[in-house]
Each structure stands twice: as C-alpha cells, then as structure tokens.
Amino acid sequence: MRKGMFAATALAMLMVASVAKAGDPASPITAERQAAFAKSLPVSDRQDFEFADRGFLGTRTDPIIKRDDGQAAWNLAAYDFLKGDAPATVNPSLWRHAQLLSKHGLFQVSDRVYQVRGFDISNITFVRGDTGWIVIDPLTMKETARAALDLVNEKLGVLPVKAVVYTHSHGDHFGGVRGVVDEADVKSGKVPIIAPKGFMEEVAAENILAGNAMNRRAQYQFGVMLPPGLEGQV
After folding, report:
1. Is 163 helix (H, G, I), strand (E, B) or coil?
2. Residue 54 CA: distances (Å) to CA of 44, 106, 108
3. CA–CA separation, 101 vs 29, rounded Å?
4. Which of 62, 116, 142, 192 could form a disulfide with 178 if both were Cys (CB 3.0 to 4.6 A apart)?
5. 140 burial class (0-12, 13-18, 19+ CB within 10 angstroms)?
6. Cβ 112 vs Cβ 100: under 8 Å
7. Three-state DSSP state, 164
8. What is the pLDDT of residues 20-66, one digit of tens each?
9. From the CB of residue 194, how many other CB atoms can be counted at a distance below 10 Å?
10. Cα torsion through 84, 87, 93, 97, rounded to 10
C-alpha cells in the first residue's frame, strides 16, 4: 500500500546512510550562475522566516525518533547543514526554502489549534476539544506520530485523543494513526476516525492502478537515495 511506500520514502530521506553516492562539486559555470542568481533574491526580506517561527513552543531534545526495534525512524538533525549561505552546489532559492522547511517542533497556530512540524514528510495537527485532542492527519509512521503526541502532551498537558481526522487518502496523512490511538479503541467506537466518503476505495485504487509509477516518480522527485548534504539531497 501507499502507506508502506511513503514510510520507505520518508525513512530513506532522513537516514544518514545511503546506498547512493553524493553528487560532484559544482562546476565553475554552475557556481557562477548560482552566485548571479543569488544577487537577484530579496535576501533582506525575512518575513517568511518570521512566519515559520511564529507560535513555536519547543521541540524534542533527542533528534532521533526511534522505531520499536531501536533503529532510527526519523532524524531531526539530518538537515542541520542548512545553516549559513547557500553553497555553489545548491540553488539559493531552494536553499532558502529548505531552511524554512527544516524548522521542527510544536507550534501554536491559533486558539486551541496546534501543529507538530518537521517530524515526518507532512505536518500533524492537534485541536484541543472540550474533552481531549482531535488529531488531524497522523503522519506516515506510528513512531513519528507517537513522538508528536508525546511532545504535545509534554508541552501542553496530557489529554486523551478523542477523534482522528483524515483529510485525504495520501499515506503521509493517515499511515501513523497507530501512534496516536489504539486499534481496540477504534474498533469499539471509543475513538472515531473521520475520513472523506470513499476513502478506502481511493487508497486502494490509487495504489493498485498507479502505485509502481508513483514510486518510480518519487525516486526522481525527492532524490530519496541520496544522502542529505551540500552535494546530495536538500
């Protein structure tokens, strides 16, 4: 299923080791073009960085989110190299965008609405209801979703999860549900899962009809086999 594909993709993206070799240093013409392009960017405009930091409440002390077997599921420190100016190997605009995306932790969006960002390839949202948390889009993996819930409980106080919402059928928006709720509570009706009409049909149809093509495309789109770094994945 696509859940598995996204989990594998996410894991490959954030693990330090990789089977692929990083790229070569920038050629002189590439370095020249990157430097020229950098001069066209409004580097003094820091509004996006202010937006990205808004509502920040804290993050994990340990950057490694582990699987049940002790292996790493996610590495929050994998992109620490993004500090400073863009190197000649990376487009300056992409570098800036990656810096914004590398911010991780718990953020308050508005009254009673919170998000944990950067713990997976998507964000997980927590709405404080009258009796507990309503969780929206519980990420790709149970380990990252569980880590997000642990952070929320640590920073905001322990509350039970009372409902889970899937906004759509992509695996990074439902694959980690077992990290925020027990299956028995779902089966008993104690914790409802709310999803769009036809959700299961969409999940199955998309993966059966297009799963192989999507997986192949993802290899090119995300560079999942490249190690993160100045000459690898950004």
Report:
1. strand
2. 18, 10, 8
3. 28
4. 142
5. buried
6. no
7. strand
8. 566 789 999 999 999 999 999 998 899 999 999 999 999 999 999 99
9. 12
10. -50
Answer whether 151's CB lies under 8 Å from 58's CB.
yes
Q: How far apart are CA 12 and CA 226, in angstroms?
A: 8
pTM score of the predicted model: 0.87
The residue count of the chain comes to 234
Q: Are 135 and 126 in contact (CB under 8 A)?
A: yes
The fold adopted by the segment(s) 2-222 is Metallo-beta-lactamase; Chain A (3.60.15)
Longest dimension (CA), the chain: 64
Pairing relationship of beta strands 72-75 and 133-136 according to DSSP bridges: unpaired
How far is residue 167's CA from residue 45's CA, in Å, rounded to a whole number?
33
Q: Give residue-wise pLDDT tens across range 75-113.
A: 999 999 999 899 999 999 999 999 999 999 999 999 999
- Exposure of 188 by Cβ count < 10 A (0-12 exposed, 13-18 middle, 19+ buried)? exposed
User: Tokens 């000459």 identify what position?
Assistant: 231
